[in-house]
Amino acid sequence: MDKERLVVTCAIISDGLRYFACQRPDAKKHGGKWEFPGGKIRSGELLSEGIKRELDEELNIEVQVLEQLESITEAYVDFVIRLYPFWCKIKKGEPEPLEHQQIGWFKIEELEEMDFTRADKVLIDHIKKAGGVPAIGEQR
User: Fold this and answer.
1) Of 4, 6, 41, 47, which has the highest C-beta tally within 10 A?
2) How many angstroms separate the CA atoms of 122 and 124, rounded?
3) Phi then psi for 131, rounded to 5 degrees?
4) Apex CA 22: angle with CA 16 and CA 26, to 5°?
């Protein structure tokens, strides 16, 4: 039996010291786990447009996509996820937990101790090894 293959985006948003993360609703897959905000890409949708749409729908914020980071593939029991992370900054609005139990800003050390989905844990390791993601306004 072939596993369902999901194409998903997520946003890495940093204020220079902390990173923005969300806790999934208990009723959804991986309920209660933490993640970087984002979601599934619709058929024919560009990755960069999908992340903007998801953040508007889930958090009521408008973001600017600054850079696409290296994708991560992670196999779960019943599906395979291809996660496309983007470094983003908030252009408009304050994040609201429209679809999440909790949201917040956390230091990298705090993220490492939280119960994140496996794909997001890999991303946290990548961020830490890279020395972090530049804060809003920083140049690469």
Assistant:
1) 41
2) 5
3) 80, 20
4) 165
